[in-house]
Design a protein that fits this description.
Low-confidence stretches of chain B: none
Strand order of the largest sheet of chain B: 4-6-8-10-13-14
Number of domains of chain A: 1
Strand content of chain B: 25-35%
Number of helices of chain B: 5
Helix content of chain B: 25-40%
Low-confidence stretches of chain A: none
Number of strands of chain A: 8
CATH class of chain A: Alpha Beta
Distance between the termini of chain A: 26 Å
Number of helices of chain A: 13
Oligomer: heterodimer
Structural class of chain A: alpha/beta
Number of domains of chain B: 3
Order of helices and strands of chain A: EHEHHHEEHEHEHHEHHEHHH
Radius of gyration of chain B: 24 Å
Order of helices and strands of chain B: EHHEHEHHEEEEEEEEEEE
Strand content of chain A: 15-25%
Shape of chain B: globular
Largest sheet of chain A: 8 strands, mixed
CATH class of the largest domain in chain B: Mainly Beta
Amino acid sequence: MGIVIAVISGKGGVGKTTATANVGLGIALNNKKCIVVDFDIGQRNLDMILGLENRVVYDMVQVMDGEASVKQAVIKSKIDENLNFLAASQTKDKSTLTSEKVKKLIDELKDNYDYVILDSPAGIESGFEHTIEYADKAIVIVNPEVSSIRDADRAIGILDAKSQKVKDGEEVEKYLIVNRISADMVQSGEMLCSEDILDILNIPLLGKVSEDRGVIDASNQGKPIILDNKSDAGQAYARIAGRICGENIPLKDVESVSTGMFKKLAGIFK
Amino acid sequence: MNNRQYSLKVLETSITDEDEFILFFDTNYMLFQDHLISIKGELSERIEKYLVQKDLKYLNNIKLPQGRSRKALEDEFGLGKSPKDSQEYKELEEKLKDEKRENAVNQQIAKAEIAQLTKKLTRNFVVMDTIIRSGREINIDGDLLLLNRVNSGATIKTTGNLIITQVVEGSVRCNGSFMMIAVSPKANIVFNGVEVDNELLTDKLNRIELRDREIFIIPVLKKDTNWAS
């Protein structure tokens, strides 16, 4: 039985889809069977970032409506055979989703894969609610700026109120990825440090990713940055994927050169 | 007969500059939305329209009853001058007696109300320890002790006293007689209808009290000394 992980952020443009692609590929590189599902119906992007744009035949909505089987619709990545992808519909809109259809699809995916990663749409509309509804865990992506933090806070609040697991009296585990950190801006005090963000959001830290110029090129090429093991962001995602797969990888301090904060954060993560 | 007695807050005002009047209510709407607005002098169509649109209750050129002392009554009715056995005086004495009796009854009612209120405070005391995230609104009819943060975009409303032990970045509406909070510069604090300036709340923990219709702010914990820097 696989684990369903929703990737959420509240605000758009913070790197949700990039994170989903890299985390998904990272898990696959750890020899776990993984499927990434684009839940951003009407605005699909994940296919491009994974370089699978030209291979989409059937999408998620067609599977839910019974026009295609999961087997037909799922695309196996050429980068790693453990990585699978299910595209969002580009022509339909969010209103086609219903709880029953989503549950049926997710149950089927859980039976076949170790990790089911759902890329949530931005905002807190119905599309977002369907993404988090049957999630076991959630990864919250946040940028070190106030609007992103407040939106993430709101998204976590809705997750804690509306997911099925919470309704059953359990808790959805939430983990934080702070994306696009610029070390010199943190040092000069222009950017919030991850400690402040953790104080506000009050969930465990999964990883910190530096701002990296390579990410844009990687997205354009359809080769996730995690494949570039020399890049800062790529290494960060590799560590994050390792942690998701249960490895004990200490947090790397990408915000300063001193080790003080690093130790503190490592303490929080344990 | 079904009676109910209550006091209400009245804002008495006269209009000299209409723009100034509208600007005043636009900025202070929060404070006066539950007041009865008593306007002296001319009331133009524009102002009337504005008040209706804002759903503010108002009266124009009406003398509202106010508590009067015995001396004021005597002066008004010329008691000092008229002979004590006059018909007028006797009537007045009767009236004053009635008023006294009424006052005593009112006092009893007030006492009962206070007793009831005190019971309510202890009964409706709520303790919460969850983080209050953006978008959440907590409405408490009574006292609240909150042992976690109030994040930016969240709102706490209490009819009673309020203590929050961690940082408040959202908004707080407290109508109790005191509250104890630590705020960030982002927070918006309204205490008994009065917006409290954040710059007065820079200490690590502040007590805000209502005494005789005046608001006092008392630092409880001074700012942390940052040894690291």
